[in-house]
Amino acid sequence: MNKKNFIFLLISILFVSTLWAGAHLISLTAESDDSNIIIQWTTSEETNLSNFVVERKAVSGEFAPISEPILAKGSNSSYEFVDENAFKSNDLLFVYQLKIIDKDNKISHSGTVSVSHSVSSVRRTWGSIKALFR
Q: Could you give the 3-state DSSP secondary structure of residue 122?
């Protein structure tokens, strides 16, 4: 396979992957605000997209969903999810990704973002007490 054919194949695969995902992501960020972690993302184009689910893992763990499905708004949209439960973990680094589900129930995943999150033991205890009364 020559270089030109290889590049065409690579571009074709990337294009198809974007169509399967149903969303073209411009950005995906995660940042700690001392008590919560704020995950934000922006799309430029959404085609046949149903929803997003935010997934989290500790560095040594496996991804697990932490949000309910977040319905697609349409092209050129911004989204935000606040992870209010990160304080419950003693982990200092979290990795997030988006599970992208289209209307045909095809699933893709975004790239990942990492964020360090350190919560004092006082805040962690107070957060656990508050969670009991929610």
A: helix
5 Cβ contact list (under 8 Å, min separation 6): none
Architecture of the domain made up of 3-132: Sandwich (2.60)
The pLDDT tens digits for 2-19 are 555 545 443 444 444 344
In what order do the strands lie in the sheet containing 78-83? 23-32, 37-46, 78-83
**pTM for this one?**
0.73
Domain ranges for the chain, please list them.
3-132
| AA identity, residue 2 | N
How far are the Cα atoms of 33, 81, 127 from residue 49, in angstroms, in the given order? 30, 18, 35
The per-residue pLDDT for range 51-73, each reduced to its tens digit, is 999 999 988 889 999 999 999 99
Residues 6+ apart with CB under 8 A from 54: 39, 65, 66, 67, 70, 81, 83, 96, 98, 99
pLDDT of residue 10: 39
Please state the separation of Cα 60 from the chain's center in Å.
Answer: 17
Is the model more confident about 128 or about 92? 92
| Eight-class DSSP state of 22 | S
